[in-house]
Write a structure and sequence with these properties.
With 232 residues, the protein is an alpha/beta fold. Helices cover 43% and strands 17% of the residues. It is elongated, with a radius of gyration of 25 Å.
């Protein structure tokens, strides 16, 4: 939007001079109030890092006991995601509590290989950031080692300005405090933020704080939802 101010003179028949001032006021209704994007990593920018499907493939590949592996995983995964244990400790408790025919290095490589970019989403956030001069913050539940790998491997540090990851800040969604930390870090108000998230509960928590949460299901529908906030 451009504000145009013009000052000039008009000579009238009666020899009087009138000063003319023209001011064009922009239509502020067309300007987005959003200045920040919060986004999850798993399920939005990338595939989930270590979800049920990933674990099922690991169980099949490494011939693990399904019931025991899942029980052990659920007993300590929250502790991993909130940064209270390391990935090495998680491996010891969930997989390597007994002698195995494979190594931790092989298992870690398998874990890393599960991560893939979701079509168009990293590029979309990059384009919107550049076009509208937006801040971008990642708000994600992930263990430190996997989060750092994914940030590095997919160059997410070139997309996001801040990383509010559960294992970094020791709060985990759906705890609303992780969103409050993100707001404080970005120094923005909730109504200035649109949050892209694949889990309905986390969208609901963000909305309860005044953040504009939208649920990711696919690229095209996400673009349409963002257009409602003036982000095209």
């Amino acid at each position: 939007m451009i504000i145009v101010i013009y000052s000039g003179y008009k000579f009238c028949r009666n020899n009087k001079i009138e000063i003319l001032n023209y001011i064009e006021i922009p239509n502020m209704k067309n300007k987005s109030s959003i200045n920040t994007i919060f986004t999850d990593i798993g399920g939005v920018l990338l595939t989930n890092g270590w979800d049920r499907g990933c674990r099922r493939r690991a169980i099949d590949t490494f011939k693990l006991d399904s019931e025991e592996t899942e029980e052990r995983h659920h007993l300590c995964f929250d502790t991993l995601e909130v940064g209270k244990i390391t990935l090495d400790e998680y491996f010891d408790r969930v997989v390597f509590y007994k002698r195995r025919s494979f190594t931790k290095k092989e298992f870690w490589k398998f874990m890393c290989d599960q991560s893939q970019p979701l079509p168009g989403m990293i590029e979309l956030v990059q384009q919107l950031k550049k076009k509208y001069n937006l801040k971008v913050a990642v708000v994600s539940n992930e263990g430190r080692e996997l989060a750092e790998y994914r940030i590095r491997q997919f160059k997410l540090n070139e997309v996001a300005d801040f990383f509010i990851v559960s294992s970094f800040v020791h709060f985990r969604k759906p705890d609303a405090d992780i969103f409050r930390i993100a707001l404080d870090t970005a120094q923005v108000k909730p109504q200035q933020v649109v949050y892209i998230e694949d889990r309905p509960m986390f969208v609901q928590v963000a909305n309860s704080l005044g953040i504009h949460g939208i649920r990711y299901t696919d690229y095209n529908s996400t673009c349409k939802k963002l257009e409602k906030f003036g982000l095209k």
